[in-house]
Amino acid sequence: MHIHLPIHVKTIINTLEGAGFEAYAVGGCIRDSLLERQPQDWDITTSARPWQVKELFPRTIDTGIRHGTVTVMLEREGFEVTTYRIDGEYEDARHPREVTFTGNLLEDLKRRDFTVNAMAYNERQGLVDAFDGMGDMNRNMIRCVGKATERFTEDALRMLRAVRFAAQLGFSMEEKTRQGIIKLAPALHKISAERIQGELVKLLVSPNPQEIRTLYETGISREIFPWLDEMFETPQNNPHHRFNVGEHTVQALLHVPEDKVLRLAMLFHDMAKPLCLRTDEKGVHHFVGHPRESASMARMVMRRLKFDNDTIDRVASLVLWHDDNPPLIPAEIRKALHRIGTRQFPNLFIIKRGDVMGKSDYLRKKMLDYIDGYQRMYEDILEKGECISLKTMAVTGSDLIASGIRPGREMGELLEHLLSLVLEHPEQNTKEFLLQKAAEWA
C-alpha cells in the first residue's frame, strides 16, 4: 500500500531516519489519505527525543516540548514532530501528569483515541496498523483503541470527538465505545468551553449534522448543552409539525449548506420553544415569542462557548428574524430590509427554507412559494437601487444643517420621518424633494 507523502514530510522523515531514528507520518493524515481525502495537517512521530529533533533541523518551535512535541519549520510551513511516548496518570480529564518517552512505536500508538487515528506510515516500512484501523474503516466504524473507558477517562473530550468523527466520516459508533460515552459523559464538565466549541462546529458543518441527535442519546448534551435535551423532549402538537422540537431541528439542519453561521443559526432557531410552549383549548401547541427568546438564549450559549462577537451577532440575528414574514408588498419588503438589515440576506432565505423543510407537509408549498416571492422582491429592490436605510437616502444630516436646520434630537427624528416616506415611495428619494419636505416639517 502506497500513500503519497508531501515533499516536506518526506524530508523530515528521511532526515530523522538518516540520523538513525525511526519516523512515521501518523494519525489523521494517514486516515484521510486511506479514505482518499485531503489531509488538513501532517503529524510525524519519531523515536528521536525532542532535543535530538531540534539538533537536526535549523528552525524549530517548542510548541509542546514537555510532552515531546517540536514544530519543525520548512519554508514557512510547520510540521509537528512528537517523540514516541507513554502517558502517565491523567488528573484533569485532558492532560497526563507526566509522559515517558519510549523507543517503541506500538506503545505510542496504544495511547491514541480511535483505531482509525492509530495508524502510522513511512515509505520504508509501509503501513503500521496494530489495532485494525483499516478494518474499522472498511466497516465504517469508530472504535476506541483498547478499552473505551480508559481512553475517555484520559481525555473526556474524546467522547465528543467520537461523535464528531462519526459525523465527518459517515461512520457508526462501535457499541462498547458508545457505552463508554454513556457511562462517562458527566466528565465532560471538566472540558474547556473553547475545546467544546471547536468540536461542536466541526460536527455541525460535517456532511452528517444529524449526529447532533447522538449527543442527546448518549447523555453528552445533558452535560454541556442541556437545552438540547429539552428540545428533544418537547412535542409540537401543531398541524405544521410532525416532529418534536429537537427532531425538527435535526431535519432542518439537513437542508442548509455546510456553513458555520447557517448551521449554528439552524441549531439555535427554536431553542426557546420549550420555554414558550402554550396549549390552546383544542390542545394545539403554540410558541409565541420563541424567535426573540431563542436569539437571546443563542447569545448566552455562544458567549459561554467563547464564540467571537461577529459570529454571535450574525447567528442571533438570523434566529431573531427567521419567523418574520412581511406581506409581499414592495413597501413592506423595503421596511423589512431596513428593519432586519441587508447583511442577513440572502442567508435568511436559506434559514427560512430549511425551517419549512423540517416541518410537516401541511401548507409546505404555500410557505415555500411565499419565500420565493419574498426573495424575488428583495432582489428587485436591490437591482433598482431603492433606498432602504439612512445610508442610501438622498439627503444626510449635513445636508439638513446646510439648509438651516439645527442639529439635535429633532434632526434625528426628521431623518427617520424622511426615511419612512422614502420606504413607502422610493421615487421620492431625491435631494430636492426631501429638503423641501424637511423644510415643511421643520
Walkthrough of the structure:
With 442 residues, this protein is an alpha+beta fold. It has helices at residues 7-18, 28-34, 50-56, 105-110, 133-138, 148-154, 157-169, 175-184, 193-204, 212-217, 220-224, 226-232, 245-253, 260-268, 273-276, 290-304, 309-321, 330-340, 347-357, 364-384, 397-402, 409-424, 431-441; strands spanning 23-26, 43-46, 60-64, 69-74, 77-83, 85-87, 99-101, 120-122, 126-128, 141-142, 172-173, 278-279, 285-286. A hairpin with a 2-residue loop joins strand 4 (69-74) and strand 5. Helix 13 (245-253) packs across helix 19. It is elongated, with a radius of gyration of 28 Å. The chain starts with 6 loop residues before the first helix and ends with a helix. The mean pLDDT is 95.
